[in-house]
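Subject: two folds for Thursday's group meeting

Dear M.,

Sorry for the delay on this. The cluster queue was jammed most of the week, so I only got both jobs back this morning. I'm pasting them in the order they finished. Each block is the input sequence followed by the predicted structure tokens. Could you check whether the formatting survives your parser before we put anything on slides? The first protein is the one we discussed after the seminar.
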Amino acid sequence: MLQPAILYEDLLLKKMIKVCWFNEKYKYFNQGFEQLEEISQSSKDAHQFVSVDNDGNICGIIFYRIDRHTRNVCGLNAASFDENAITFGRDLLQAIDDIFVKFGFNKLNFGVVIGNPIEKTYDRLVCQAGGRVSGYYKRDAILMDGTFADVKVYEIMKEEYLDHIEEKEWRKTLVANKRWMVGGKIFKWSQQVINKLLLHLWLIK
């Protein structure tokens, strides 16, 4: 469940110190923690959330910056604390959906340090959200050990995200019902036929 980070300010700071600071696992997120050194008292320029499970444990942090003039979102940062990966993953997808559906922002730009184990997951996530890789920056991030790293930048546009989600919902309905209307008649198809249809649709996109 997504909750405003300010409601968990003290717990969040202790969690980050205990789990993340000086932990080499989080070396790719080094600059992200610097941006979260102070929890904002306002939602004007940034949204800062924590992912919380049913027992009240903080599973991770999700935050991004907002340009109110262009209605663009940038600098999406997300880090899981391994408390509940399923809850955190669901909340991350919800946060991205809220950017476009709930808050109506125009575009989302964010980057990942090349070599970060999460990079391939972001590649798939952005593709599934109708986005793309928009560029690369050489030596644009500094890691915990002081070395520089390259950054891959993603872009997701509102209209493309909404179109992709509509198509995704249609596919889910098709698979769930295993039915399709042709010439005014309803046919019940096997899962094998449906899989072939979805593969065909994917290949011609």
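Second protein, same layout:
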Amino acid sequence: MQDVENTGELLDRSKEGVIKAFFDYDADTGAICWKSWIDPRWNKYKGRYRNFLRERAGKIVKFGRQGHGYLVVGAGGIKGITAHQIVWVLTYGNMPEHHIDHIDGNPENNKIENLRDVPQKINVRNQRIRKDNTSGVTGVCWCKKLEKWKAQISVDGSRKGLGYYNTIEEAAKAREEFFAKNPQLGYTKRHGKPSISTKDKQKENT
């Protein structure tokens, strides 16, 4: 949606337009800053505009955090703008087509080289073990009827069984061997690994 108040260029109030109007990104340092100047029409009240120039203009953005650890901020009447969306738009000029995946799994590492635009089915193949997992191993569950461990994977929304095993270790190994033989599926080494804290993620990437 675009704004037609006053004269001059229209204000693009879409998320993409707000990102371009309010933020700057330094690809060398990874820093995301507020622009040193914005069109006064973005602020209905002159006092708010003066506050922006005094308190934010040209300074590094202070982000909040979402539940998954993503860095978020509000601007131009839009809440929940993520750091990775800002970096993507200011690098490529448009919003991502699919989902932004943090290649190293650290939601605070928003350098453009750590981001990729992939369908959700590819994104989940780079995720650690889910919090609601009950077996402790992704894709492995206990079959009460057979009293064995079942190994399975998800391919294009459908579950594919990899057999039943006497031990959970054997079932987990079956998945690893399947991934090794089918690299085109895009499962990464991070997939299914135990979750770690943000602090440990930072250590992991140093």
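Two things I noticed about the second structure. The chain is about 25% helix and 25% strand. Helices lie at 15-22, 46-55, 83-92, 120-123, 168-181, 198-204.

Cheers,
T.
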